[in-house]
Amino acid sequence: MKDFRLLVIGIALLLCSCNAHKRVLYLQDVKDGAEVNIPEDYQIKIKPLDQLTIIVNSKNPELAVPFNSSTSYNALSGIPTSGNINSNNLQVLTVDENGVLNLPIIGKIKCKGMTRAELSQVIANKIIEGGLIADPNVNVRFANMTISVLGEVTRPGRFEIAKDRITILEALALAGDMTIYGNRENVAVIREQDGKNIVSVLDLRSKEIFDSPAFYLEQNDIVMVSPNKYRAASAEINQNRSFWISLASTAISLATLLVTITR
Prior knowledge:
The protein has helices spanning 2-24, 61-68, 116-129, 168-174, 229-262; strands at residues 51-57, 92-94, 100-103, 107-110, 137-142, 146-151, 157-160, 182-193, 196-202, 222-227. With 263 residues, the protein is of the alpha+beta class. The protein has a 5-stranded mixed sheet. The chain has a 3-stranded antiparallel sheet with strand order 2-1-5. A two-stranded antiparallel sheet has the order 3-4. A hairpin with a 5-residue loop joins strand 6 (146-151) and strand 7.
C-alpha cells in the first residue's frame, strides 16, 4: 500500500510538471524541420503622422544640399541663402493626417500606404523630372520606429527599432521575454489603423501565429502580455493577506488604546 501511494504521488508530480512545461513553452505544435513561409514582400507601410528622415545624395554633393537641410533657400534657384549646412541640419518631416508629405523644393507627395523604397523612387523621379539632379539617390528612413511591450515581461517599456521587419517574438526578446506568469495563449497586439485601434490576440503556443497579420509588428504597435491565472491567484492571496494583517494591526491598536483608557 505504501509503494502504491508513492507511485500515485510520483505520477501526480509528473503530470503537474508536464502541465507547467506546456504553460511556458512556445510553438508547441511545430515539428523539427518544419518550414514556415515568410511573406517576401512584407514591408512596413507609411502612415499618417509618421516621422521620416529623407536624405538625397548625388555625385555632385552640392546639388543635394537643399533637399537635406533645414536651411532657408532661394525659391527660384534652390541655393541656400544663409547658414552652413552639415549633418546636424537634417530635418525630420512629418506625414500629415491625410497621408501627405511636404518636401523642400519638391512639394507635396501623397505617400500613405507606400513603403520606404516606393517613396524613395517617387522622390527620385520628381527630382529628375524637375531637372534638379540627374542622378539622385534617395534614402528614406523612419524617425519614429518604436514599439511598446507591456504586462508580464521582464523589462516592459518602449523600444526603438532599427529595421523595418520585427516579429512579435523579437519584440518579446527586447523586453527580456515573458515572466513565468505571462499568459502565452493570450498576447494582444494593438495597432492603430485608419483612425481605429485594431486588436489581434495571438496564441504563442501555436504555429498559427505565423499566419497572423500581427506576427510582424508595425510602427507604434503595442504588445500586451496578460497574466495567467496563477499570477491572478497570487495577487489575490497577497491582497487578502495584507487585508488581514491590516485588520489585525488595527484591532491590536484599538485594544491597546482601550486598556490605556480603562487604567
